[in-house]
Amino acid sequence: MLETLKERVFQANLELVKQGLVIYTWGNVSGIDPASRLVVIKPSGVDYETMKASDMVVVDLAGNVIEGSLRPSSDTPTHLEMYRNYPEIGGVVHTHAVWATSWAQSGRAIPVYGTTHCDYFYGDIPCTRELFETEIKDNYELNTGKVIVETINALGYNAMAIPAINVSHHGPFTWGKDPMDAVHNAKVMDTLAEMAYLTEKINGNAEKVTQHLLDKHYLRKHGAKAYYGQK
Amino acid sequence: MLETLKERVFQANLELVKQGLVIYTWGNVSGIDPASRLVVIKPSGVDYETMKASDMVVVDLAGNVIEGSLRPSSDTPTHLEMYRNYPEIGGVVHTHAVWATSWAQSGRAIPVYGTTHCDYFYGDIPCTRELFETEIKDNYELNTGKVIVETINALGYNAMAIPAINVSHHGPFTWGKDPMDAVHNAKVMDTLAEMAYLTEKINGNAEKVTQHLLDKHYLRKHGAKAYYGQK
Amino acid sequence: MLETLKERVFQANLELVKQGLVIYTWGNVSGIDPASRLVVIKPSGVDYETMKASDMVVVDLAGNVIEGSLRPSSDTPTHLEMYRNYPEIGGVVHTHAVWATSWAQSGRAIPVYGTTHCDYFYGDIPCTRELFETEIKDNYELNTGKVIVETINALGYNAMAIPAINVSHHGPFTWGKDPMDAVHNAKVMDTLAEMAYLTEKINGNAEKVTQHLLDKHYLRKHGAKAYYGQK
Amino acid sequence: MLETLKERVFQANLELVKQGLVIYTWGNVSGIDPASRLVVIKPSGVDYETMKASDMVVVDLAGNVIEGSLRPSSDTPTHLEMYRNYPEIGGVVHTHAVWATSWAQSGRAIPVYGTTHCDYFYGDIPCTRELFETEIKDNYELNTGKVIVETINALGYNAMAIPAINVSHHGPFTWGKDPMDAVHNAKVMDTLAEMAYLTEKINGNAEKVTQHLLDKHYLRKHGAKAYYGQK
After folding, report:
1. Phi-psi region of B90 (alpha: psi -120 to 50; beta: other; left: phi over 0)
2. How many other CB atoms are found less than 10 A from the CB of residue D230?
3. What does the domain layout of chain A look like in residue ranges?
4. CB contacts, 8 Å: A134 with chain C
5. Phi and psi at residue A39, to the nearest 5°
6. Helix, strand or coil for residue A109?
7. Do the beta carbons of residue D124 and residue D219 sit within 8 Å?
8. What are the phi and psi torsion angles at A60 (to 5°)?
9. Which strand (E) or helix (H) includes residue C176?
10. Which residue of A131, B89, D69, D165 has the fewest C-beta atoms within 10 A of its own C-beta?
11. SS3 C9
12. Does residue B142 sit at the D interface (CB-CB below 8 Å)?
């Protein structure tokens, strides 16, 4: 079942390696089928080099394995929490990419220092609070999803306006309209994390972009008045 | 029309990827035909992997599309402003390359710390002021070109003596005698941006080169008394 | 003799180069045969490009060459000291990888700043004290092993719980259940060294993970209650 | 004439590119024939991609072109000054490699922070003083060689004991027993420059190695009592 989506999720997982975002088994991608609301996700701890499209695991939004002989990614409950809360999401990615993860470990949001950032994300990329002891001990992966949702909702923006977040002391999650779009956002986030780092080192008093510049760049690529790209 | 120039602009766009200056669609190259004063430029938001030489768009200096079925780069008005003001320019490049863009985001000029810089650029690589709100809201891309010209003219140097600039909170533009030369200067600028960053971190009181050293290195490669390279 | 282990040690040495942990001859891998307690190790100063599996040298735990026409790695006494003290070790690696070595040169332990670290190492990765003059002058390589053992024992943890250490002003040693696992840990250590560096630069007051988070991530991958990966 | 040396100098120039030390034409290698004391050097400003072994230029120690239709590297007088002063040198390399050049631009010597450094260089890698105005205006490239010799002689060490130096605000020169050995030292110097940078950022009070450790590592690879590598 869902062979096309399995192939797309599989290819998106390989793209993580190709883009230099993942070594060994340090990442996972999932995608959701809009009709059945079933989720296809990478199996846990399987090497990218030997993984096949048919290894992808199908789960429902409650976390039951519907098809597949391998265990789904241990981060599956985090992915599912995202899909349950934001129906517009078509794919979710988690990595331990170096630059983004270093910001996660520092506990700071990635400030919007330039137009590259504005082209993709409509504001700073947040970092969640740390999880409490009880949230870590039981249902850790589900609670990781809950703290992401809590952060997005507390800041009051649309999840698709800033399709990336860092979980404190852990690492980045990104999402998009489909699995490959979520990988694309993971690569962009990591590059922005690198440039924000360098910007602060070059100028200890670096300032964020103005709201005007943020509006201009974000809205020329997204929304009704977009004029970037082809029709 | 202009098939040779289209091929050269196309190859120069691919070279941006090969040199590691561009991911996804984060860059564009244009070239001008000296006879007709028509400009060939990359289409907007098209993947480098599927792009063909025949996708290049021909526009006149007023921005009218003369040939091509795709939209030209959204940065076209910036490129055209450069060609209108500096007839000696044969090619223009814009990227979001990591090192140069980080300096743009910091709002600082790239200081001339060594002979590598002197070999190509006859002084610091400037960073423009930020655009005003009105300049961002209307004709943003044209105004980006205008603030570049304003900066060059205010500093009072020949545009070909320092064929590179950063736009504040945005990123680098470079130019040259032809499209590939502009790409070459983009690579050099990014490498200089990296080395200037490291130089300041190694020595918080790093000093710029003397005028004597700048003259020596720049003039042994450029101008009437050059003696670098082959005749 | 031990042809299979020779092949595995040889392949693990090549993997060091493939993973970008070694240039020229700056690294070595060994493995131990559990039955005979003989050790197979890379020869000293031989190019990776021309090295063959049959060049691997067999030594006993006292350091006697049992088979092989080439000299064993000059670091052999360090490897042997590890095998003698920790029978659970199946492979040992030494490199001068850039990030880990820079921490060694700084004399600091690598703090556990995030879950990537917790997934592999159950606490900070220590750095030994400097060797005394007498320890350097005589039996230097053996004393390098002794100071590693001294550090692990003084801190009081199981050697397999943190299978990596830095020797002060020198560089990293890692180990594992077999030679390739030790290489895997060398790559992980170097990546953690990079991220710890960046974390401290992004936030000068960065905090280590809580014991709860360390327990959660380490124990979901290791030990009786592990649930990461496939059964 | 000297076809074998031409091929070796040519291959050593290509190795600079392969090792990531050079982009475009930013480097040059030469080698000397011990019998005739003639020097073979890369031509000036020729692309590495189209360069052939037969393009190498033969000059004598006075700088006269003995064979070759192309101009020799503009840095030829610097190379010749090295050969004239240190007869034990067999090859010389100049690059603008990023890490080493950043130290040159900072004007600081590269401190000996670890054993990787000790394995190759018997102390800090020095940085020359800046050239005076008169030294820049006339015979600049010769004076670059003279300030290198001045620095080595003032510090009072054997040129082969530390076969690498930075010229202030310019970049690294390295040498060796033959052209490829000089390239090897260029790669090592750049890696040490990177690790010294990181070491100081990880620990603002990082200390250099003791004389004991420097002696141990340098002398186990060099000199009469060396025991590293194969006999």
Report:
1. alpha
2. 10
3. 3-222
4. none
5. -115, 135
6. coil
7. no
8. -95, 175
9. strand C171-176
10. D69
11. helix
12. no
**D3-222, CATH topology level:** L-fuculose-1-phosphate Aldolase (3.40.225)
- Confidence category of residue C70, pLDDT binned at 50, 70, 90: very high
D202 neighbourhood in chain C, CB within 8 Å: 102-103, 105-106, 108, 197, 200
- Return the pLDDT at B9: 98
Select which of B55, B119, B124, B140 is catalytic. B119
Q: What is the DSSP letter of C130?
A: P
Confidence at residue C230, expressed as pLDDT on a 0 to 100 scale: 81
| Nearest CB to B116; choose among D45, D96, D200 | D96
Q: Is the pLDDT of residue D6 over 80?
A: yes
The whole-number pLDDT of residue B229 equals 81
Question: In this structure, what token pair is assigned to residue A165?
Answer: 């977040």
Burial class (CB in 10 A: 0-12, 13-18, 19+), D204: exposed
Residue B24: CB atoms within 10 Å: 14
Distance CA D59, CA B11 (A): 38
**ipTM of this model?**
0.96
CA distance D182 to D205: 32
Beta-sheet strands, E only, within chain D: 27-32, 39-41, 57-59, 65-67, 91-95, 164-167, 171-176
The tokens for D217 are 């590592």
Tell me phi and psi for residue C185, to 5 degrees. Answer: -65, -30
Query: Which pLDDT belongs to residue D18?
Result: 96
Chain length of chain A: 231
Three-state DSSP at A110 gives strand
**Do you know the residue count of chain C?**
231
Cβ-contact B15, B53 below 8 angstroms: no
Cβ burial, residue C89 (10 Å; 0-12/13-18/19+): buried
Between CA A72 and CA A79 the distance in angstroms is: 11
Give the residue among D202, D200, D11, D194 at the shortest CA–CA distance from D97. D194
The yes-or-no verdict on residue D35 having pLDDT over 80 is: yes
What is the pLDDT averaged over residues A63-85? 97
D153 part of contact set with chain C, CB < 8 Å: no
